[in-house]
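Lecture 7 notes: from sequence to structure.
We start with the chain below.
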Amino acid sequence: ATSSVEKIASTGPGIRFFQLYVYKNRKVVEQLVRKAEKAGFKAIALTVNTPRLGPKKSDIKNRFTLPPNLTLKNFEGLDLGKMDEANDSGLASYVAGQIDRTLSWKDIQWLQTITNMPILVKGVLTGEDARIAIQAGAAGIIVSNHGARQLDYVPATISALEEVVKATQGGVPVFLDGGVRRGTDVFKALALGTSGIFIGRPVVFALAAEGEAGVKKVLQMLRDEFELTMALSGCRSISEITRNHIVTEWDIPRHLPRL
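Predicted structure tokens for the same chain:
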């Protein structure tokens, strides 16, 4: 991020999770985690689906790198705040040079030795991985496909959500990241068992279009759409939203007899 955790923490009240990429230099990781903890962040969102960066065609075409007036603020003073130019993508070169490809389930336990914050595993799409993550000590799961930018034909997060929720058997919270564009999407995710939802692109686009006012507007739109969906579905509270309120493409069609 081009804003520091301290600056983000100073913007006002709210629960903040720190999305962590594990660097080859583990001392850097320790410094990052301690900075986040000191700034009042409440959990670590450990990114596990980026051992390598997926091919981002526009970044390669544009030879993307950070403009000279921007730096990775949390790394200033560590010689990691700048992204060098490259023949393809400066971001891809940066990730290849810095991110630890040897990341494994054991690193959840390592992180627990340097912080008291709960570790949420971000990037899970299967029930099998969800179970392994919990066995390794994860305090929660974030179902995410990295904005569908890592791998072509990866399943949509909403399609993977129910399998992951069932695999956890209620032992840890499961969050959904990605693909939410309408209040109806929020309703569907809750019906499939998510504990909460992360919203990325709508907020970024609104911020770019209208700044703070745009972000407030898009969040209010989602809230209004969600409340209307609840009303039209006969739900007076979130606890009344159940699996029976939706039909998914993998359900047996209700008009066909079960064989």
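Points to note: The chain has a mean pLDDT of 91. The beta strands are 17-20, 43-47, 119-124, 140-144, 174-177, 196-198.
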